[in-house]
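User:
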Amino acid sequence: MKYPSRFVSTSFLAICGLVLTIPFNMGGCASDGGAGLGSIGIGGTSVDIGRAASGMEKMGHSANMKERDENVMGESVVMAVTNQYPLNTDPALNKYVTLVGLTIASVTENPDGNYVFGVVESDKVNAFTGPNGYIMITTATLKFCRSEAELAGVLAHEVSHSVHHDGLKAAKDSLGKAGLTEVATSVGDAQQFSSLADAGVDAVLIKGYDRDQEIKADKSAIKYLIAAGYDPNAYKTFLTRVKDMQSSNQAGFFSTHPGLEQRISAVSTQIPQGQTGAVLKARFEKNVKRAK
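Assistant: Predicted structure:
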């Protein structure tokens, strides 16, 4: 597989008025020593997070967008999530999460897609994927993870939702059931577009993706983890701990990610026997210390 030499990604901090330019050298599997932000399993490829494009469309102009514009729907989800959960504005922490996320994104079927990663402040273990690659992970999830491989697993699952366009599909399905099949093409149709945006927010934050979408995302996540050089067993371990917490009546643990027992079983069958990879516990602990 040929990997791109550059990624251009709008960070969540850019959405809030801060623009980051972050070079990321990805040249072979890094050791577990925690030194720097090395690379995971992509020999010789250099990935840069370029400066975000100026003049981002503001949500106030979104009434002119069509249903196919996933980006505006994604921005709607970002705004809904950050209205509910404050945005973590630590550049170092967001940078680290972004780098891990882009490492995963680089081995997907859509390596040149739009991928935007951000951290939000919440005591609930959860992660969200809005349309067009807007991916949010909570600080509680970072605390719950025990290694970079576990974090990569969570992000790989969310990236999978983006690659599969699950957010857009869920919004369309919701609108179809409501009998609203046409969307805004002018300012006068703002109410219809608002319905589309609301459907996307509802699908991601409240209803979540259905079990089939979750299992499919897990399947792709395992493939991406292996391709990037991470140990996929770490993701299975993460899901198992989440299930154990749910069994202990801990509210909020992956509430929008249903069917954990079935998903864990499916993940187990996806991991080749004897498969290993990078875990990077020390590097993870070094880079998430600000979240703890």
